[in-house]
Amino acid sequence: QANSQTMDEMWDSRSSDQEHPNIGWFKDAKFGMFIHWGLYSKLAGEWKGKRYYGSGEWIMNQARIPIAEYSKEAATFNPTNFDAEKWAQLAEDAGIKYMVITAKHHEGFSMYDSKVTDFDIVEATPYKKDPMKALAESTRKRGIQFGFYYSQFQDWYEPNGGKNTWDFDESKKDYQQYYNNKAIPQLKELMTNYGPLGIVWFDTPGGLTKEQTNDFIKGLRKLQPNSLFSSRVGHGLGDYRDYGDSEIPATPIKGAWESIYTHNDSWGYINHDMNFKTPREIVHLLAQVASKGGNLMLNVGPDGTGKIPEYSEKFLRETGKWLARNGESIYGSTYGLVPAQPWGVSTSKPGKQYLHVLNRPLDGKLVIPGFNANVKSVAILGGPASVPFKKRGDVLEITLPAGEAANLATVCVVNYAGKLA
Ligand code: JFZ
């Protein structure tokens, strides 16, 4: 809907010698938290008594709300429940390694202290504080990489920003004017005032040629050479690939990449969406994405008061408990060498295959075809250091211990010698 370019146009597959020198932490991180938070969070998927389902952050567009009306919402936006320490602690407890939050989404409202516009949380709301300052500190102090989402092209508040077709005529817009006077100066603020950023997450590119995009990137890189830029900066540029929303590639991918998922059916908070993925579903997603070599960035949508939905909090904590026991199979792993099986998926570290049992066979027997390396031992993470296994030619058979029924996903570690081909 929002794209001016297709995924293919947005990405050239790149080889490892072109990788960003700071890509290592990202490849090891595996689990990120995405946060969509803005004025739309207060609207919560409702406008003038009518409900809108999915993508709550798009309500201004969905309901064709004029800027003059939408911007009035800022006067009553007062997120007094926001607590940076709580959010960052939840992320840490969930086993999250990086956080990316919307500094400005398509609605055009700045959720940080911006001198570029008055339409920001400090000047336009009764809250008057900069939540991003606090969040940058709280995450960094816990060793969590912090980053900003910034909608660099779509800005429905600006006469020259992309894609507000209900207040303006798109054909009369001067995108360059918008880039020069809002997007670039704001990105400079974000990359100057919040300490080292792990990521700048661009979205839905438009209005720039490839050459202009290159210049745009070069200018920003000077401010923070270590920050990673998402592929949605456009034209096949950026430091790692983002798949389309809720998409896992079919085959393992070598370069750095990320799958992004909503927790319920929306990015921005919606008060009538209870379709939250369970802890089991989250763990299985994480294992599936890691088995292809990628990161999972899972979204949470805090409400307009700054509260993270109770199910997001509860289910993330349970995910964190699983990771505390099984994280060795996720963090720092690379894609699995055992292809997906009816019982589950695998991840790798040198000399080890981690078998994630997502569907436990009723007889407890795992069959792993094509395991043509010498198996030394098989262990269960957080369980027995040695479990029975047999080799029949290239077929490895493992007998899972009884019990484990409550485990969201049992992980077997196969220690082997030689090369799995
Ligand atoms: C964009 C936004 O429009 C949306 O509100 C949300 O922030 C999401 C994370 O990103 O939506 C997109 C952008 C790209 C694709 C899909 C949805 N894509 O490439 O498949």
TrEMBL record:
Sorted keywords for this record are: Glycosidase, Hydrolase, Signal
Q: Is the keyword Disulfide bond in the record?
A: no
One GO cellular component assignment for this chain's record is: lysosome
Please state what class of enzyme this protein is: hydrolase
* One GO molecular-function entry: alpha-L-fucosidase activity
Q: Which domain of life is it from?
A: Bacteria
Q: What is its EC number?
A: 3.2.1.51
Which intervals hold domain Glycoside hydrolase family 29 N-terminal? 3-328
- Lipid metabolism as UniProt keyword: no
> What Gene Ontology terms for biological process does this UniProt record contain?
fucose metabolic process; glycoside catabolic process
Function of the molecule: Alpha-L-fucosidase is responsible for hydrolyzing the alpha-1,6-linked fucose joined to the reducing-end N-acetylglucosamine of the carbohydrate moieties of glycoproteins.
Per the record, the similarity remark reads: Belongs to the glycosyl hydrolase 29 family.
Q: What is this protein called?
A: alpha-L-fucosidase
Q: What is the lineage of its organism?
A: Bacteria, Pseudomonadati, Bacteroidota, Sphingobacteriia, Sphingobacteriales
* Range covered out of full length: 20 to 440 of 597
